From TrEMBL, chains A, B:
Pfam families, per the entry: Pyridox_ox_2
Disordered: annotated span: 1-24, 197-226
Organism this protein belongs to: Geodermatophilus pulveris
Biased amino acid composition, Polar residues: 1-16
InterPro entries: Pyridox_Oxase-rel (IPR024747), Split_barrel_FMN-bd (IPR012349)
Name of the protein described by the UniProt record: Nitroimidazol reductase NimA, pyridoxamine 5'-phosphate oxidase superfamily
UniProt cross-references to PANTHER family, sorted A to Z: 5-NITROIMIDAZOLE ANTIBIOTICS RESISTANCE PROTEIN, NIMA-FAMILY-RELATED PROTEIN-RELATED, FLAVIN-NUCLEOTIDE-BINDING PROTEIN
Amino acid sequence: MGTVDTVTPLSPTPRSTVRRGAKRARTDRAELHAVLDAGLVGHLGVVLDGAPVVLPTGYGRRGDTLYVHGSTGAASLRAAAAGGPVCFTVTLVDGVVYARSAFHHSMNYRCAVVHGLARPVTDPGELLLGLEALTEHLAPGSWTATRQPDRRELAATALLALDLTEASVKVRTGPPADDERDLPGGVWAGVLPLRTEAGEPEPCPQLPPGTAVPDRVRYRGVTRSS
Amino acid sequence: MGTVDTVTPLSPTPRSTVRRGAKRARTDRAELHAVLDAGLVGHLGVVLDGAPVVLPTGYGRRGDTLYVHGSTGAASLRAAAAGGPVCFTVTLVDGVVYARSAFHHSMNYRCAVVHGLARPVTDPGELLLGLEALTEHLAPGSWTATRQPDRRELAATALLALDLTEASVKVRTGPPADDERDLPGGVWAGVLPLRTEAGEPEPCPQLPPGTAVPDRVRYRGVTRSS
């Protein structure tokens, strides 16, 4: 029982092949894109002096290239990420799975894990396209509605590109997977669904009173955080 | 402008000292606890064959010890994490910051980063306490309301302990930090607050019809995901 789903490698390399919970793997590239597009932040892992460093960062996608905002991390992180191996993970938590035993408590979620070598973006054209992807991912409509980066800002921006070649998606949905022995106990079991909701937009105090909230903010499709 | 906050090391080691955005650092240990307690999943980073691996996992806290559910990752991850250096990061996304320029778009968030050596929990007493912390973090009230782990389940559980000694907290709140030159443009700016909401509990199909949803589920304080 339990519509327990999958982890699937989208590439056959050992580290992106999910060994545990293989039922939860998804192989479809469209599903990888869907999870990445639905997230808001990801967690970028790099190795620094032999130890892992994991920091949250915004991102954007263009086809099978992921752009990560290098400047959201420390300078040391940027240095490590420029050309070194990275792991970028986006997780969407969809619900708390209440089981009849503590052991079978779980979460429903969608998770995309990308491995690869980060490539610093230096070409001015790609830098602009990458920043557009990043901005539009965070705030759809903002790239054209606000002032675009000038030369000084572009120079201050560290953007990393990551190929979506080596990636896996893991998904869990559905009710708990309880033991048969626990079914008769009368303990409630099921799923408490979770979703990210937007509240009322809070205008900047320096905005002239009465400035209308634009549709791109008011009706923003709320992506899921993590 | 921008009530831009802080990143603060809770310990003075180089890697937990936030170099960038030091205004956003927080030094208070209570704030570290608060961020960890408010999260639902964290991202555990380990080094595997020289490359970082970042996977989401549930966790629980007891004082200044964090317990992480080792079995949520691949066997290779468990192996790497047992005694090796790890980084555990919890991020709560509080809002999308809309600025008057693409460059100043941002997110409001709270983020806790913990560095350390993962210690596999083998003592039966600590294993139970750690699993209780983990279960109660995910599903408050479930530890006593559901069947607790038996010997077989305990044997199948890999639990890692991580000291909260070397940690930092980074927080951003408030409106965008726009350039003076962009203020007169008439572009809307502000914050779209985001929060995690629980939906209607979905009973397990194998539950006898009419089984009441317990208060621990119905009125669960919704923690924030990431």
